[in-house]
Amino acid sequence: MKTQHNIPEEVYLEFLGRTVEIHWNYHAILMVTVWFVLVPIGIISLRYFKPKPTKTGITAYRTIWRPEWVWFHIHQWGLNLAILLSLAGMLIALVVSQGVSGSLHSILGLATIGLGVLQGISAFFRGSHGGRYYEIADPEDPKTWEGDHFSMTPRRRRMESYHKTAGFFTMLCAAAAVGSGLMQYPMPILTAVLVVVSILLLGLSVWREHLGKRYDTYRSVFGNDLTHPYNKEREEL
Questions:
Q1: How far is CA 65 from CA 128, 136, 194, in A?
Q2: Where are the domains of the chain?
Q3: pLDDT for position 5
Q4: Cα(198)–Cα(48) distance, rounded to whole angstroms?
Q5: How far apart are CA 64 and CA 74, in angstroms?
Q6: What is the pLDDT of residue 236?
């Protein structure tokens, strides 16, 4: 493996009082695992593993212990873990590089992590859940159905508009960051693994798409009752 001459291989850290060897391969393995394994699994889980819509949707309360919500928690906690690991990888790289190098890889990497953090922040604005057939609601009392998601309030629409759209741009930045990083610091075995994993995840997505498993999130969660606000709004779909 041949590295470019401008990549530091060791650094003196004052808080340790000694020079340490820099293992960039660990950084590369971490970031590839985060952005091309953990993040795609979180996205695919939400996109292709929701339950098939029924009349009532998912009635169980949304907790990590309920199997009906496994797909959601894989997405939620998997992407939160991805953000934390990315931040850790970024901070270590900044420390050993003693700042931002200004390379294309560093700029793309910072953009990716910045967008990733914004994805996590935007999720906090999703609002309340609601639902006519939700476990804590009374199907006969409309006041108990209210929730930002069930009613698709402006707050929820703004969150989804940003969260879903920005996610694609985040993955584009991640692909560019990883690609530029592997060009700067070649790791043939890791590159081969990256290609194989990407093909497998693509194959899984194509297979689930072919089976018709990309269910509408609103209908999977709340049911296909046409009296529901967002179902009524999209009655022609």
A1: 19, 16, 33
A2: 10-222
A3: 46
A4: 16
A5: 9
A6: 78
Tell me which fold the domain 10-222 belongs to: Four Helix Bundle (Hemerythrin (Met), subunit A) (1.20.120)
pTM: 0.89
From the list 170, 196, 186, 181, the residue with the least C-alpha distance to 113 is 170
Largest CA distance in the chain: 71
What tokens appear for 129 in the block? 């859940």
Spell out a b/e string for 169-191, using b for 16 or more CB atoms within 10 Å of the CB, else e: ebbebbbbbbebbbebbebeebb
The sign one gets for the Cα dihedral 80, 82, 86, 92 is positive
Q: How confident is the model at residue 93 (pLDDT cuts 50, 70, 90)?
A: confident
User: Using CA atoms, how far apart are residues 140 and 57, in angstroms rounded to an integer?
Assistant: 16
Q: What is the pLDDT of residue 19?
A: 73
Residues facing residue 10 across a β-bridge: 21
pLDDT band at residue 15 using 50, 70 and 90 as cut-offs? low
